[in-house]
Specification:
It is built from no helices and 51 strands. With 576 residues, the protein is mainly beta.
């Protein structure tokens, strides 16, 4: 038996209502896939087996709030599925019968878009569910296939296979699932994944995709940037050959109230978003192939507040086990809230003893503006405007203990204190660096046994070309994998600064400024190196390539990449 699905669409398979709306959202159906030519005007013929794999995405670029929800109706006024997102990817199981299905997209400006799906579902001998590759997606040469199958045959499934063209069996595997990569030549593939059971029956599911230069790589890097003043996170995948950013299907992804910063799990499984105004954390599971975000169960999680303290920054330890949030407000002593991260569910649980109080410096109250964890996961460091605090991390519980002689004063070159902003640790986990309000960079060496910091000779180092009266240049810094160049995002001077680093001593020397007036960051914006690449991204949507031998930077084609709103909030999450 088989399932026959009829898809009734207006031209281009996208239709939007404009009678009552000031905006025109669009809705595109990526799955079920077309198998044959239209049998009549505005009608497409589909064949397949249940459950029905429905994949659809919507956008509304002219509506400030974007898409608010997607709904699937299997009959008049009968909602079978609803999501407060702009993207849906689900396997819809329906009893045998006929369904007048309608998929609707709603934006926050009153616009509505429709796609019609007439499904005639019959009893079937089995199912083939293709999880990867994604329908109508563009990949580089290596394409990931992941699929599973079921059968009503009492003797079970015998094997599964992949046909990349008619009668061209490219791969097969025994059992009811397959998981492999195929290296394919450029072109568009109307592939079929097939299941054979032990009753001499077969079930197939088609999947169409394209292999081309510039497609999503086999092991992609994803960037997540919160929008300013709205509950959305923009997602991109990075082209490692050009450093260009490409929008992830389904982006933007819903957050809570005005996301303030994002962070990527170093293992590439989860992304987290800190919402300062609603004082909570969203946890998302990352689709490892295309970067889509699905909110974890029990998310968002409240950040406990104590007095006037507000959550300022969020970081995940190097092994993805612990999450830390800085709580601080001007004039108050700071605290750090710690959570353990369940690697299966994404659930956050408060670490016993949390929040962890910060010792005050000699000049007064100490509160954390920014956080970083060194690559081994043994120490956490905070930037406190006038100092840096260090904490050892209990490797079993995640509890924090402030290291001896912490906090460490950040002496200024032009004033008593440097005014520390962004904070990083080099990949060799031997040095801590801060960007300073006074247009300088401070550096310390790390005692590997205790976590204590010792200020490096000549620190802080200044960019003497910055005009008088300009501050926060750099406001954010990042360092490449070779640890020989630091790149600064100069908020006051609207440029990128390049600083060379002596890899043996950690001493920094100002090198040059680039792209003056071509970037316009806010002092809260961040810049980061994309792991495993020679690419830089910042939270304003700028993307640049850098030469690891000279430090020279060039804009990626198409940069800056379109981000709605008037600039971006401070955090930028990158997930491998």
């Amino acid at each position: 038996m088989r399932v026959r699905i009829w898809l009734v669409l207006l031209p281009t398979i996208v239709w939007a209502s404009t009678l009552l709306a000031a905006t025109t959202p669009s809705l595109t159906l990526y799955s079920p896939v077309l198998l044959q030519a239209n049998r009549s005007p505005n009608t497409a013929n589909y064949d397949g087996a249940g459950p029905i794999h429905i994949v659809a995405g919507a956008s509304s670029p002219n509506c400030p709030g974007g898409i608010s929800a997607l709904e699937i109706f299997t009959d008049v006024n009968q909602i079978a599925y609803e999501t407060y997102s702009s993207y849906v990817d689900l396997q819809m199981a329906l009893d045998p019968g006929f369904y007048n299905t309608v998929i609707k997209a709603f934006d926050n400006c009153g616009g509505v878009a429709f796609v019609y799906l007439e499904a005639y579902v019959l009893s079937s001998t089995g199912t083939v569910v293709v999880n990867q590759p994604e329908m109508n997606f563009v990949y580089t040469a290596s394409v990931h296939f992941n699929a599973s199958s079921t059968t009503s045959c009492a003797a079970g499934v015998s094997a599964m296979g992949i046909y990349t063209a008619n009668h061209q069996l490219a791969y097969s595997a025994s059992g009811s699932s397959l998981n492999t990569r195929l290296n394919l030549a450029p072109g568009t593939y109307n592939a079929v994944v097939e299941m054979w059971d032990n009753c001499n029956q077969a079930v197939t599911t088609p999947v169409t995709f394209t292999v081309a230069p510039g497609g999503i790589p086999a092991e992609p890097e994803f960037v997540y940037i919160p929008r300013t003043g709205s509950p959305w996170i923009d997602g991109f995948w990075v082209d490692p050959s050009t450093c260009a950013l490409n929008t992830i299907p389904g982006s933007p992804f819903p957050a809570h109230y005005k996301p303030y910063g994002t962070v990527g799990d170093p293992l590439g499984v989860f992304a987290l978003d800190l919402n300062q105004d609603s004082q909570d954390i969203n946890v998302y599971r990352i689709d490892p192939n295309i970067g889509g975000l699905t909110q974890a169960v029990e998310s968002p999680v409240q950040v406990p507040q104590y007095g006037l303290l507000k959550p300022q920054a969020i970081v995940v330890d190097a092994e993805g086990r612990f999450v830390y949030v800085a709580n601080g407000n001007y004039g108050d002593s700071g605290e750090i809230t710690g959570y353990s991260l369940n690697r299966t569910s994404g659930q956050l649980m408060l670490i016993p003893g949390s929040p962890f109080k910060m010792k005050n410096a000699a000049y007064g109250g100490t509160w954390a503006n920014y956080l970083t964890v060194e690559p081994t996961g043994h120490y956490l460091y905070t930037s406190n405007a006038g100092s840096v605090s260090g904490f050892s991390i209990n490797q079993t519980t995640g509890a924090l203990t402030e290291v001896p002689n912490s906090p460490f004063i950040a002496n200024g070159r032009s004033g008593q204190y440097a005014g520390t902003e962004d904070i990083i640790v080099d990949p060799s986990h031997t040095h801590v660096y801060t960007a300073n309000r006074e247009n300088s960079i401070s550096g310390w060496s790390i005692n590997a046994s205790s976590g204590e910091l010792t200020e490096l000779p000549g620190s802080p180092w200044s960019d003497l070309t910055i005009p008088s009266g300009v501050e926060f240049s750099p406001a954010s810094i990042t360092i490449n994998a070779q640890s020989n160049y630091i790149f600064g995002l100069d908020a006051g001077a609207d440029q990128i600064s390049v600083w060379s680093v002596d890899t043996s001593t950690g001493i920094v020397t100002f090198d040059r400024d680039q792209h003056n007036g071509q970037v316009t960051p806010d002092r809260l914006n961040k810049i980061r190196v994309v792991p495993g690449s020679n690419c830089l991204v910042d939270s304003g949507g700028d993307a640049l390539a850098f030469d690891p031998n000279t430090g020279n930077t060039t804009f990626a084609p198409g940069s800056p990449f379109g981000l709605p709103g008037s600039g971006q909030q401070p955090g930028i999450g990158i997930a491998p």
